[in-house]
Specification:
InterPro entries: HATPase_C_sf (IPR036890), PAC (IPR001610), PAS (IPR000014), PAS-assoc_C (IPR000700), PAS-like_dom_sf (IPR035965), PAS_fold_3 (IPR013655), Sig_transdc_His_kinase_HWE (IPR011102). It is an enzyme of class 2 (transferase). With about 575 residues, the chain is of the alpha+beta class. The protein has helices at about 5-10, 15-40, 50-60, 65-85, 90-145, 165-170, 175, 180-185, 190-200, 250-270, 290-295, 370-410, 420-440, 450-460, 480-500, 545-550, 575-580; strands at about 150-155, 160, 205-215, 220-230, 240-245, 275-280, 285-290, 305, 330-340, 345-360, 360-370, 450, 465-470, 475, 505-515, 525-530, 560-565, 570-575. Helix 4 runs antiparallel to helix 5 (about 90-145). It is rod-shaped, with a radius of gyration of 63 Å.
């Protein structure tokens, strides 16, 4: 597109070159004629200085060579004229000739150097102009093919220039846009925002941006990010404002969808009384929703240090918040912790979520739920069911007492037709049954320990008689415990009447062991009396013998053995684990 200065001179037409040479020759001829006449009329007073203007003109019109040649010709002509007219050349003329020759050379070289400098400046200017033209071409290409709309406008808002993309966005042709103002493209409801942008432009900042609605030619509207920028060279505002239009309709639609989804999520979490939380395990920072801090009984804040939660989390549950040592990239996290709120209430809180790495940072995130009411309801239901079960067992046991009492009445004979003694014996058995029932009722499970049943019958004699009770811990169910208590009561009553409990020096040893090393096997129960034994005048097998199984099967257990001597008694009974309960 550009040519250097030398090429420009070579491109001059022949007529132009001829005219230049004729002008130079005319100046040279006129100067020589003038010098000749001046030498003739003035004489020796004339100098060679008259040639200098001609040398300057020729140096300007021609290059260095012609100018030097013209200078030499002028010097030679001047010396020849003086030699012809005066017959000789003085030393002063020679000095002037040499000075003229030097001056002409300097002038020719000066013009030559100036011409070269001008040529170089022109080449630099042309190179810069070419670069500017290339940049403008690239800018124009980018301007026309940009993915965003571009336009130039003045401070009045008149559109000066627009690109293809802006035309596609608005539906206007470029010629139509050139006849519109920027305000015309902005939706009427958003024109105040445009006015604020224009008012602040150049005062507070050289660039402003805002999201506004633009109107298309067909009347529809779309969301766009409008950016206005103004250059401020040397403190003077430019008349051109650069406008960038970015269509953000899809992004706004996605944003609105996300906002609606977030509102739905917040509503769902609120309805389910759930909260969101996240723990950055590297920095120990906890962030959560307002509901999360409300569940913990803490004022809502953006974030807290993890160790700050130790003030409200139960010490026994604090280790549940420790960092997992698993190396798996994703780990499910599900714990329940107790929280002591500032008002003193203990709340159960479930933390459910995931423990994973994100950007090389280990974190936990999930939801939190207040389980206090649910746990209280569960505990109340469990307690109610347990109480109901106990009441059913108590009622069942109470109902079973009537057949037992009826059996006692039928089993006890009237000794020697003595009604008073009959009543005494019957009441004694009923009271023993009552004591056993009260002992079992004190236990929520309705069962009793074998040790407690034995001690209950021997308790009245513990302080005055030598009694020892030993054996492993064995639990007996309600029905078996009542029957076994009656057997022990019968042994104690017999011992008081005829055996060791009736003698101040007598001794009673009661012990039981497992028949084998297997704890699930039979239990061998032994009642051993030592000391003087008072013989009974009348030997009969009555109610007591029936209970302990002398005349048949005992009330509970099997394989009973009774050995009596003048110095003691030994009674053995085997109790099956299946028979007496768990």
């Amino acid at each position: 597109m550009s040519m250097n200065w030398q090429s420009r001179r070579s491109d001059l037409n022949p007529t132009g070159r001829l005219l230049t040479h004729l002008a130079s020759a005319s100046v040279l001829a006129a100067t020589l004629i003038f010098e000749t006449k001046a030498s003739a009329y003035i004489g020796e007073g004339s100098s060679f200085l008259e040639f200098i203007p001609a040398i300057i003109i020729i140096s300007y019109l021609e290059d260095r060579g012609p100018a030097l040649a013209a200078t030499v010709l002028m010097v030679a002509a001047g010396l020849w004229t003086r030699s012809t007219l005066h017959g000789q050349i003085s030393g002063e003329d020679w000095a002037r000739a040499i000075l003229l020759l030097i001056s002409g050379g300097v002038i020719a070289m000066t013009f030559h150097r100036l011409r070269q400098d001008v040529r170089e400046l022109l080449e630099v200017a042309e190179a810069r102009l070419a670069a500017v033209e290339a940049t403008e071409s690239r800018y124009r290409w980018a301007f026309e093919r940009a993915a965003m709309g571009f336009a130039n406008t003045n401070e009045k808002g008149e559109l000066l220039q627009s690109n293809r993309r802006l035309s596609e966005m608005t539906g206007y042709e470029e010629e139509e846009l050139a006849q519109l103002q920027l305000e015309t493209l902005v939706h009427p409801d958003d024109r105040d925002a445009l006015a604020q942008l224009l008012a602040g432009l150049g005062k507070d900042s050289a660039s402003f941006a805002s999201e506004v609605r633009l109107s298309r030619k067909n009347g529809s509207a779309f969301w766009a990010r409008l950016t206005l920028s103004m250059s401020v060279p040397d403190g003077v505002l430019s008349e051109t404002i650069f406008v960038v239009v970015d269509d953000i309709s899809e992004r706004r639609a996605v944003h609105e969808a996300l906002r609606a989804q977030k509102e739905w999520l917040d509503l769902a979490l609120s309805a389910g009384r759930l909260a969101t939380w996240r723990i950055d395990l590297k920095d120990g920072i906890v962030t959560g929703s307002g509901t999360f801090w409300d569940i913990l009984g803490l004022p809502p804040v953006g974030s807290r240090r993890l160790e700050e939660l130790s003030a409200v989390v139960h010490p026994a549950d604090w280790p549940k918040l420790a960092v997992s040592r698993k190396l798996a990239p994703v780990t499910n996290y599900d714990v329940e912790i107790r929280v002591r709120r500032p008002d003193g209430h203990i709340r159960w809180v479930a933390l459910r979520g995931r423990e994973e790495k994100y950007d090389d940072r280990l974190q936990r995130l999930g939801v939190a739920a207040d389980l206090t009411e649910r746990r209280q309801t569960t505990l109340l239901r469990a307690a109610a069911k347990k109480r109901e079960r106990i009441m059913l067992e108590q009622r069942h046991r109470f109902i079973n007492l009537f057949p037992v009492i009826t059996a006692l009445v039928n089993m006890v004979n009237v000794p020697e037709n003595n009604v008073a003694r009959y009543k005494e014996t019957l009441i004694d058995r009923i009271r023993s049954l009552e004591a056993t029932h009260l002992l079992l009722s004190g236990n929520s499970s309705g069962s009793g320990m074998l040790h407690d049943l034995v001690v209950q019958e021997l308790q009245p004699y513990m302080g005055t008689r030598d009694i020892s009770v030993s054996g492993p811990s064995v639990t007996m169910s309600g029905g078996a415990a009542e029957s076994f208590a009656m057997i022990v009561h019968e042994l104690a009553t017999n011992s008081l009447k005829h055996g060791a409990l009736g003698d101040s020096k007598g001794r009673v040893e009661v012990n039981w062991t497992f028949a084998s090393e297997d704890a699930g096997g039979d239990i061998v129960f032994d009642w051993v009396e030592s000391g003087r034994r008072r013989p009974s005048k009348v030997v009969r097998h009555g109610f007591g013998s029936m209970i302990i199984g002398v005349d048949g099967a005992p009330l509970v257990g099997h394989s009973p053995k009774l050995e009596m001597t003048g110095h003691g008694l030994r009674y053995s009974l085997r109790l099956s684990r299946k028979e007496i309960g768990p």
